[in-house]
Amino acid sequence: MSSDQDHLKQTDTEERFDFKKDSKEAFRSEKGLTEETIRAISEDKDEPEWMLERRLRALKQYHEMPMPTDWPGQPDLSEVDVDEIVPYIRPDVDVRGGVDDWTELPDEIKDTFDKLGIPEAEKNALSGVGAQYESEVVYQNMQERWEEKGVVFCNMDEAVQEHEKLVREHFMTTCVPPSDNKFAALHGAVWSGGSFVYVPEDTTVDMPVQAYFRMNSEGMGQFEHTLIIAEEGSEVHYIEGCSAPKYSAFNLHSGGVEVFVNEDAHVQYSTVQNWSKNTYNLNTKRAIVEKNGRMEWISGSMGSKATMLYPSSILKGRGASDNHITIAFAGEGQNIDTGAKVYHNAPNTKSTIESKSISKDGGRTNYRGLVHIADGAHGSSTAVECDALMFDNESTSDTMPYMEINESTVDVAHEATVGKIGDEDVFYLQSRGLDDDDAKQMIVSGFIEPITEELPIEYAVELNRLVELEMEGSLG
Amino acid sequence: MSTQLPASISEETVTEISAERDEPDWLLQTRLDALAALDDLDMPSVIETPGRRWTNLEGLDYESLVDPLDQSDETERVTAEGVEVLDFETAVAEHPALLKEHFGSVVDPQTNYLTALSTALFTTGTVIYVPEGVDAEDVKVRAEMNSRSLFSHTLVVTEDNSSVTILERISNGDGDVDGDRYFSNLVEIVTGENSYVQYGSLQNLDEDVYNFTLKRGDANTYATISWIEGNIGSRLTRSDIETELTGDSSETKIVGAFFGHNDQHLDINARVWHHGEHTTADLVTRGVLDDEARSVYEGVQDVGRDAWDTSSYQRENTLMLSDDSEADASPKLIIHNHDTEASHSATVGQVDKEDLFYMTSRSIPENTARNMLVEGFFVPVLEEVEVDELREDIDDLIVARLD
């Protein structure tokens, strides 16, 4: 790898993520969180009464709940002042709910997504794309052949209108109720945009669908909601990408993801998260998996100032299974607190968790996981493996798994290792002509390979580039 | 603080305990400070996951459990050549300077509510002093508890280039007490350079005793502290075994074995802090649960910013014999220095069906086969025990429980 190529690649990627746009707004809510703000958002979206009621109830719960502050070693959230953020910005786009032709997007928004590489990905590898800018989805498209089979991929606001019965039944009721945690309640009050995916019985969507979330304005919060319903025997892969430019004020991202994996269905949910380093990423993601269903969570957490995110699966039906593959990279000033939660609530359920983390230049990563095996979940098994790679003694890497085992006929294993990058490995590569940086980069690429190989090639490339940039310390 | 101070405790009580033992002012003052701190101190931190606290220490009725002026124990102390093994009162009289220097230096009396309560009220305990160059084996402390509540404080001090193995055994005596009881045990170890301490403990209290124990050692340069912690008895045990690897090239081993049955609750914690360079820690715990017994395990390996060239390993395995039992575990790695090799692993499972089949197919009755497998499960832990008597005692208690 020549240094010229490196340089080109860096500038290319750096520009891809870290640029700002002057954007026009059609509607901007007041800062802070009051009933008036919630009513204004709901009215601007022309929502049915029941959704407004849910929002108001969530707002009430939000005010009643304390901030999470007493977890051992958790990120400092004292700077998170919800009254200082703008919860809702509707960009000035002609078509509410998003256009379905890329060329119809206003130039400044189109440019943004062009730079992020969304259109090429859509042409090449995806079944459908949704793109969210600030609080609203601005582009939404699904290949016709899937629409004909009854597959729905639309933005969440539209789903409230068009698929009211399904949404009313599933939206923040059993999977992620607002009472789950303070930020789930916040999300329930101010949510906007996001994706709705519905896959009918026995339908396999064999190319991934993708949503991309872009936060552009200073001091805003983004609260997109994703609801995926995979009916019996269906299969779908959903990919989510996120980014935001860097501003001096803090941004808040507090999304909600609910996945319903019905009998024999298979859902893969992949995320590559690269929020700018002033963003607090406090997300709630959960799947309910029925009999013999399979849920896979693949996540790469690169950006943000602080992340608290523990995608969770509730294995509700006999034989349900879960796979988690996560990678976290924390550079200077970053605190990535992430992990996985699995509740084995039925017999013969299986889960595997593979977690990798890299910390560098004072970054802090934490694997915080929970495996719960309920009384009666006999024949269940779980294997958790965490590996942490550290570059220096300014950085911190913690592993805090929790295991609650209420059943004897189970197989539970947890393993974690922490180590520095192998001096001998570096020496070996150097002796074959690589310089120190390239050698380390290559070792890191090998370290994260288990996750990159699960991702579609575009995402794998993106993740690798992001890691390379972090290694150079040249991002943000 | 949510727990109210038991009405039976006051400055007068504490002063009376201290005066009876003819204690120096500084010790009385330490007791009174601990008493005064009770209002502001929290219970030992307990693992929590959403919706539940894994051990309920707040729920105990300290008011009825603690009877400070009626403490009674029968403790046998066996010394070895060159080592001073003294009951606490004698040590106060004979080694005032040693006590003043080291008492509370490793276990801060105000660590939490229960350590402060123990410091304010302790009436029994042992001081073990190992002079420079002395190698001693088989120091024994066999304590029997004969009252509703008993508070004990043990201090071990080793000088440079010395070594000692200590066996502590805790059980109930013939004291005629009905109902719930409370036993509190604080142990601190101060080590000289290049000294070696193995401190083995076997707790086999009746199943109406609530048991709190905090043992902590500070390992000097080239020093090794090796802990064995066997927990068989009690209704509820909260046991914290901790080593601070302060000196360069210091080492520690924490070996735990527990066997819970009926509705016993065992909250077992093993923690190591790596401060010096080239330090090594090895944590091994094995436990078996039967009936409705419950175990909570936390293991912490904390590697400090300047702890270069650290090696730290932890393994925890739990065997569950009953569907009504529960095993909770949280092994934690907290790493601040990259020049570290650290790993932890935890497993929970049942008696291996194939092993059982293999043995029954060789005409061993199923029950016998199962018991042999459970006994065998403890072998990797028992192998670490250098004191023969301790190893045999633990094994005997395991066998007794299996019958």
UniProtKB/TrEMBL annotation, chain A:
Under the heading Pfam families, the entry gives:
SUFBD_core (PF01458), SufBD_N (PF19295)
Q: Which residues form the SUF system FeS cluster assembly SufBD N-terminal domain?
A: 139-210
- Ranges where the record places region Disordered: 1-40
Q: Where are the transmembrane segments?
A: none
Q: Where is the SUF system FeS cluster assembly SufBD core domain?
A: 213-447
Family per UniProt?
Answer: Belongs to the iron-sulfur cluster assembly SufBD family.
Q: What is this protein called?
A: Fe-S cluster assembly protein SufB
Species for this entry: Halobaculum marinum
UniProtKB/TrEMBL annotation, chain B:
Write out the transmembrane intervals: none
- Occurrences of domain SUF system FeS cluster assembly SufBD core (ranges): 146-377
Residues covered by the SUF system FeS cluster assembly SufBD N-terminal domain: 71-137
Q: Which SUPFAM superfamilies match?
A: Stabilizer of iron transporter SufD
Q: Which InterPro entries match?
A: Fe-S_cluster_assembly_SufBD, SUF_FeS_clus_asmbl_SufBD_core, SUF_FeS_clus_asmbl_SufBD_sf, SUF_FeS_clus_asmbl_SufD, SufBD_N
The record's family statement is: Belongs to the iron-sulfur cluster assembly SufBD family.
This protein is called what?
Fe-S cluster assembly protein SufD
Name of encoding gene: sufD
